[in-house]
């Protein structure tokens, strides 16, 4: 069975307050072209379709635009999509019964007992089990176990094992944190070992298409994370993003190839002095990238972010051991206290909720009240 696998689209994501819809449209176009060129037996998206449970209008429109293009350009390819921990599963899948029968959208744990039955071009019979993200208690735990994410996962696997047809190739699509996986700064933290899934549980399947972790990586013998198609934090500045082309065969380990994806603008981190950054041409190649600037000198600068953005318009983050903030700065202070700029976080929050910049009156009110400046004391 030939599978194309991606995950963690996070449509509607903001990077330090900057909308990534154009970037996402760019990379989704590459994914569509891969589906058209490869003509797989199934195309899988393993969760976190949106970046939050109530996505903005632009994000919903982009998903619709993308799925319409996929159905137009590759109408014979089945599409299997599950919800992740950033999605509201039932809200995401509310219209699944109305969709094109080639689009299988799963977000309700109660649907787990109904696999997607496929027949490959070679005549191979396949069962695809779609397991959306399971919060603890989403399914009753096995006897003797307390509520945990792994307990819910085990219950889901028990449901599958009772219904699995062993004469068919077995594929599982799941959104979870496999124990031993490598994180980045852009995943939503799920605290505790009880949220982690033992990769041994994936053994009954011929391929397991995972979502949640943003780096492409293996999870045991049968399972793979495709990673996110874009870098969603500066900790991913060196990562080559990809989707996975998989050959799954009943009773054998899968063969997996990484298909590179190219961002509209990569994320980069530069460590330098302000003078070196602005007065020399050695960094001019960074003008069109999303930039995190780590200043190395302990010097007070006036309006550093404004000066940086005049030359590097996509500079989104500034770290410094000692910085005087100017108007419009989005700053994270690289200090041992781990403090962050609440002003930047508030502006990002307002943009996510309202879809626009906060009014000046709201910004002024926040500055008067912000707790890190003693406003509530």
Sheet of most strands: 6 strands, mixed
The fold-level CATH name of the largest domain is Purple Acid Phosphatase, chain A, domain 2
CATH second-level architecture of the largest domain: 4-Layer Sandwich
Spatial sequence of strands, sheet with the most strands: 6-5-4-1-15-16
Kindly state the number of beta strands: 19
User: Which percent range fits the helix content?
Assistant: 10-25%
N-to-C span: 63 Å
Alpha carbon gyration radius:
23 Å
* Number of helices in the DSSP assignment: 8
User: Kindly state the mean pLDDT as a whole number?
Assistant: 87
Classified in CATH, the superfamily of the largest domain is Metallo-dependent phosphatases
How much beta, percentage-wise?
15-25%
Order of helices and strands: EEEHEHEHEEEHEEEEEEEEEHEHEHH
Low-confidence stretches: 323-340
- Which class of secondary structure composition applies to the elements? alpha/beta
Give structural notes.
The chain is an alpha/beta fold and about 375 residues long. It folds into two domains: about 1-260, Metallo-dependent phosphatases (Purple Acid Phosphatase, chain A, domain 2, 4-Layer Sandwich), CATH 3.60.21; about 265-340, no CATH class. Helices cover about 25% and strands about 20% of the residues. The protein has helices spanning about 20-40, 55-75, 90, 150-165, 275-280, 305-310, 340-355, 360-370; strands at about 1-5, 15, 20, 40-45, 80, 105, 115-120, 125-130, 170-175, 175-180, 195, 205-210, 215-220, 225, 240-245, 255-260, 265-270, 290-295, 315-320. Strand 4 (about 40-45), helix 2 and strand 5 form a beta-alpha-beta unit. The protein starts with a strand and ends in an 8-residue tail after the last helix. The model is unreliable at about 325-340 (pLDDT under 50).
